[in-house]
Structure formats: structure tokens, C-alpha cells
């Protein structure tokens, strides 16, 4: 069976340019070594640093490579100092953040406060203002685009409020990277996080990007002087050069890729809406051009994912399974989506390899599953998946 990947927000296939760069890097030495082999490896790392920096309008010296987006987020969420010596002992995070941000980094649980979102998935700016005014300066963390709904936040406005209250802003741009145009300057973020495998790079490499003149947080990993003393440990040379090549390629092709993908996403949503009871979540808000969150009350998300899988299509659920108990995602709970609808939500995300046939096939499978699962056919699909 020809498999169709429609979970691009989870991960992306490795780009040919990234694969070629990584293959060429396999024989490189330790970039901290001073002899020729080390200098060659250092040159490859610094070229990748330049490529990643250029992709978000940053300076190369302000890019800190990490083991991925989770580490980059954890590094950013550190009670830190700005250039005037101000400490930030409060962390405000939006209620729809990635778990690596909601965990709070090095902040204690008592220091972390959630910022509410509206029913449309946008940050509640009134609540943010109230929290900023409640105590001393805070570090605020808000994702640029949500990984489930695709909703894009008004980051520049948020930055204005945060900076006006004497705070700092961290922006998780991992899901937006390569899909919409932005820069660290336009976003007015103090710190920005990125991940390679969301744009066609390898897994296991990411970056924290600093605004010009912004001091880095204290290092999570101490030891050697790698990454200018900001992240100890021998650099993942192969992963880093793959990240650089993927970043350069993703930005160069973003406009044409996302225009085509956006057209396909709209085509898919038109087809889905023709099926009675189907709802597209947050479809009236600015969203990533590749992301659809679709739901139909009466369909269990985890069973729907199994149905898609058996039909040869990879999608993901807007719910998480923990110890056998399925609950609606924290994102949809924060948006106050009715529980029955939230428990049925499925995320479909497209990418540069997605075809019109893939989208048509997806709509066809949703139509068939809607006719079966909404009328109580969940057990049959679960049994079929176990047999598979």
C-alpha cells in the first residue's frame, strides 16, 4: 500500500540538500580541534550557523545550537539577567504551549503562570496585561504558531505589551519556521527557538536564537567552551550541517511551496465541510497554510487515527493517551471547545511533497470513517488495528 504522510507538523522527510550536506560531513573531525581536520569541521559548523541565522534575520554569533527544540526551549526558560542586571523570577506561558515550555524550564512550578487564550485560539491580551501588571518583570513565552490548530499569534503586539512592562519575550517559532515569513527583528522577540526536523532537516538538532545585544541565558550544560560557552558538549557536526542546508532550502522555496500547500489545504477543507457534522477548528483565524484541525462529535480521535492508518494515511489526534485514559488536548481545553468535539479532533498537516491526490484520498477516508465511527463502529477498527 502506498503510504500518505499527512502529519508534517510532527516531522518532515529529510530534504535531499540536507542529506547531501550530512553525508559530506561524516568524515569531519572535532570542531574544537586546532589542526586542519578540526578547522574544516569548524568551518562547516559556522557555515550552518550563518545559514540558520540568515533564515530568521539574525546574526550568526547569536545562534546557539542545541539537541533539538525541547532543549532550546528549556535553555530559554531560565531565570536570567538582561543587560542592566534585571532578574526575571516570574514566567508567564500561554495555555496552549508545547509541553517543553509548559514544563517551565528552570523555573519552579510556583513561579509559572498560564496566560489564557480566547475561544479562537488567540492569546487573551487583556489577561496578559493584567498578569504583567500584577508583580515584577516577567519572562513571557508564547509560540508564534500553534502546532495543533495552526493559529498564528500577534507576536509583535504581544512583544509591545511585554517590553512595555519591562519583561522579556521568548517565542517558540518551531512550527512556524519554513511555513510563514518572519524574522527575529519583526517579531521583536528576545529569544527565538527553532528545530531542524520540522523543515526537512535531521532530528536531534535545534537552536536558540538571540536578538542582537541580548545576553544568553545561563547554560543548561556546563563543561567545555563550545557554543561560546553557552552550551557545553562537542557539537553534533553532522546534524548541524544538515540543519543549515535544510534552513537555506526551506526559506528559498517557502513562498512557492506554501502557496501550493495552502491551496491544497483549502481544497481539503472544502471537501471536509461537505460531510455533515464536520467542523474545522479556528478556521476564521490566521493560520499556518498547511494545517487543518478537524472534528466531528461522536468520533473518537484515537480510533479515527487507527482508521486512517489502516487506510494508509498518517494523521495525528488532537488528544493524548496517558495510562489508558484519553483526554482532550490541553490546547482545545484552553480554547473551551465542547468536550465531545475536542475528543474527536484530528490534525491533518501537509507539506511540500503532498499532492492533490493525497488530499482527495484523505477527504474520501474521512467521509467513510464519518459514516462508520459516528454510528458506533469504534470497536471494529480497534480490533482490526490489533490484527494488523
From TrEMBL:
TM helices/strands, residue ranges: none
Domain of life: Bacteria
Alphabetical UniProt keywords: Iron, Iron-sulfur, Metal-binding, Pyridoxal phosphate, Transferase
Keyword Nucleotide-binding attributed: no
SUPFAM superfamilies recorded: PLP-dependent transferases (SSF53383)
InterPro entries: Aminotrans_V_dom (IPR000192), Cysteine_dSase (IPR016454), PyrdxlP-dep_Trfase (IPR015424), PyrdxlP-dep_Trfase_major (IPR015421), PyrdxlP-dep_Trfase_small (IPR015422)
Domain Aminotransferase class V: 4-361
Catalytic activity: (sulfur carrier)-H + L-cysteine = (sulfur carrier)-SH + L-alanine
GO molecular function, one term: metal ion binding
Cofactor(s) needed: pyridoxal 5'-phosphate
Family as reported in the entry's similarity comment: Belongs to the class-V pyridoxal-phosphate-dependent aminotransferase family. NifS/IscS subfamily.
UniProt function note: Catalyzes the removal of elemental sulfur atoms from cysteine to produce alanine. Seems to participate in the biosynthesis of the nitrogenase metalloclusters by providing the inorganic sulfur required for the Fe-S core formation.
Protein name as catalogued: Cysteine desulfurase
